[in-house]
Amino acid sequence: MLRPLKIKAFGDVHNGHSSTPTIKISEEIRECFPYGKDAAGTDILVLDGDWYDKLLPNNHQDAIDTEVTMYYLLRYCKDHDIVFCIVDGTPLHDAGQIQKFLHINKEAKIDAEVILVDTIDIVYISKYDVNVLFVPDRPRTTPQETFSIVQEKLKQHNIEQVDFAIMHGCFQYQLPELAPDHKHNEEDYENIVKGPIIIGHIHKHSSKGKIIAPGSFSRLTHGEEEPKGYIEVILQPSGEFKAKFIENKRCEYVYGYFDFRTFLCGKKCSLFVWENFY
To answer: How many Cβ atoms sit within 10 Å of the Cβ of residue 12?
Structure first.
């Protein structure tokens, strides 16, 4: 690595979600990633998967709004000389549509530096002299088989460690209630990644050791009352890094509920109400 790098990472955006409007998410993205001095100091923008919530027909307004936001992010990266690194998310969500970033970048002649990876791979970014590991949520193999492929990639590149990793999936600590054979092993990846391990899929922001999960960018459903946003990482050539969570303050929706048991009993209905209740 030639010098310290500033990395911004977000994901689990879920454009086309049935509850939180796509146009609202678009406004939040523009608010969190505006043009200006801060953008000019950013080296790498990471999208850690699940840009889409589901497969959308091309004539759906959410599809149109999503593509406008894609154009904005590509233009943002081009105009501020930012490398845009994208890992494919869950097939049920991204459904191949995330490839539109490459199509828009080419056909609109934006020519941003985009690295989009939909299979396990290591990519060398010569501009910064860094090796980046990408682990998408496919192929749908066991964590052990996935890590075996990662080890083969290290051998192919004749390296023992990468500088940082971008993944979509989950680690043992994130969902302790699930059987271990459905989750990545923390120690495996900490041993082969010098710096941060950025992982999407679980919507709650968390960190453990080198692992950083930005969580979902916006609030999408019940049980997600915690702050939403993205992370900013300053990565040193040694692999040491400092990371901070930056809240998406335009994320105003909070989902409440009715207690229909009291309602049906003819008693006062329990209703939790917040501003912008949706």
So the answer is: 26
pLDDT at 158 over 90: yes
Q: Decide: pTM greater than 0.70.
A: yes
Q: Supply the pLDDT for residue 252.
A: 66
Angle, CA of 149, 84 and 217, to the nearest 5°: 90
